[in-house]
């Protein structure tokens, strides 16, 4: 595997307690922001002390984990805070498809953290970076939109083809996604999108890493010591037009056999992947509802106790890709995605998050996101397809999911 590495021989890391910095996102000095925020808590980072670009491959998580263990193992770390996310941290995003050359880990030079009433600042290398806002963010203006790989009717035909394969017994479920393009007149500043997403979707994980910006509701895995947590999502309906419509939609989603089937594939796979790694594992019998401003999901909160010293990235490797983004059986679904979507997903639907030098971290599934490059944003949305799926309804569901990033870009 050809790795592109930039890192000093030895990281020198110093973390200090600081007074509450308030809104972490407001402290980001550059548009090239690294972020992981939920309910105002989390970490943000900037600058690059070390970076690993991976060409893909099924072993990309293991290779990344090994590189990071060596880097952090050799580092000089002064960290009196000792909280998850204090000391050196790598932010990362991995390609959805092992064939995708898009995986990256970035260890920032500065990390600002806030959690459970504590706040800290970590500096890696010299500390000449000013904390003041260098370039105040400006919102994108005059956006123009265009289709991605497939037009809406072509994507509906792809969904119909997937339903046909499922009905012929080739597979049980596949998740099909599409992309949309937005063009702005000036370079798009990730910080504006992050601020808007964090304000509108506080219960989601608002993230930014190497241009991939979004607010995902789906926690692939959190490791804190030996404690694991995951929030499995699959099965969706759009929000209603008012409280009565919302109530009716909630009841319909909970009662929908098609959505429950979609959900069961995902929850069962997460259970089966975590069971061999855990001494205790709790998976609810029935999904609950997660209500967001644009959609509602069937949700299962899974918790477990790790029975070995695996890092969070080891656990990510065991889980990805779940049927929330790929399908069942995994290999058949991945082949069908390659055949029908007509695009490379890049890091959309891949794991995104952070890991610290203790092996703790939080990784979400990169959903409700866009890849930002200069004046261009590429948005993604996908839907789980089972035997009873209706292409027009799936298209409408994808539009509801796109709304999160459309709002982030347009306000
Ligand atoms: C693939 C996406 O959502 C997944 C997560 C929650 C619900 C889903 C669904 O109901 O289809 C998808 O499995 C996406 O937002 O792009």
From TrEMBL:
Keywords: Isomerase. Signal peptide: none annotated. GO terms for molecular function: isochorismate synthase activity. Its EC number is 5.4.4.2. It catalyses: chorismate = isochorismate. InterPro entries: ADC_synthase, Chorismate_C, IsoChor_synthase. Residues 154-401 form the Chorismate-utilising enzyme C-terminal domain. Belongs to the isochorismate synthase family. This is isochorismate synthase. It comes from Actinomadura viridis. The lineage of its organism: Bacteria, Bacillati, Actinomycetota, Actinomycetes, Streptosporangiales.
């Amino acid at each position: 595997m050809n790795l592109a590495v930039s890192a000093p021989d030895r990281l020198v890391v110093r973390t200090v307690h600081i007074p509450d910095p308030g809104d972490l996102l407001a402290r980001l000095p550059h548009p090239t922001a690294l972020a992981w925020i939920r309910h105002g808590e989390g970490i943000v980072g900037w600058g690059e002390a070390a970076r690993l670009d991976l060409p893909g491959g099924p072993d990309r998580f293991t290779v990344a984990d090994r590189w990071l263990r060596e880097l952090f193992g050799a580092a000089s770390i002064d960290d009196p805070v000792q909280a998850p996310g204090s000391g050196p941290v790598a932010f990362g995003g991995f390609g959805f498809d092992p064939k995708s050359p898009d995986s990256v880990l970035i260890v920032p030079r500065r990390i600002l953290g806030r959690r459970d009433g504590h706040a800290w600042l970590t500096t890696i290398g010299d500390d000449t970076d000013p904390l003041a806002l260098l370039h105040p963010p400006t919102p994108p203006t005059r956006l123009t939109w265009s289709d991605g790989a497939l037009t809406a009717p072509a994507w509906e035909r792809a969904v119909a083809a997937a339903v046909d394969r499922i009905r012929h017994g080739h597979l049980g479920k596949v998740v099909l996604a599409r992309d949309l393009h937005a063009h702005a007149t000036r370079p798009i500043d990730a910080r504006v999108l992050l601020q808007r997403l964090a304000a509108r979707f506080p219960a989601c994980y608002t993230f930014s890493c190497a241009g991939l910006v979004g607010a995902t509701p789906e926690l692939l895995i959190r490791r804190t010591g030996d404690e694991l947590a995951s929030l499995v999502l699959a099965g969706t309906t759009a929000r209603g037009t008012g409280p009565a419509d919302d109530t009716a939609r909630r009841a319909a989603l909970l009662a929908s056999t098609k959505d429950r089937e979609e959900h069961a594939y995902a929850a069962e796979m997460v259970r089966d992947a975590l069971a061999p790694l855990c001494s205790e594992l709790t998976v609810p019998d029935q999904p609950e509802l997660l209500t967001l401003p644009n959609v509602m999901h069937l949700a299962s909160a899974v918790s477990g106790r790790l029975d070995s010293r695996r890092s969070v990235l080891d656990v990510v490797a065991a889980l990805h890709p779940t049927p929330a983004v790929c399908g069942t059986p995994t290999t058949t679904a991945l082949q069908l995605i390659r055949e029908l979507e007509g695009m490379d997903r890049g890091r959309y639907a891949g794991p995104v998050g952070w890991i610290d030098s203790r092996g703790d971290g939080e990784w979400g599934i990169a959903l409700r996101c866009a890849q930002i490059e200069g004046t261009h944003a590429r948005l993604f949305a996908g839907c789980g397809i089972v035997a009873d799926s209706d292409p027009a309804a799936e298209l409408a569901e994808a539009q509801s999911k796109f709304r999160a990033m459309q709002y982030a870009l347009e306000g």
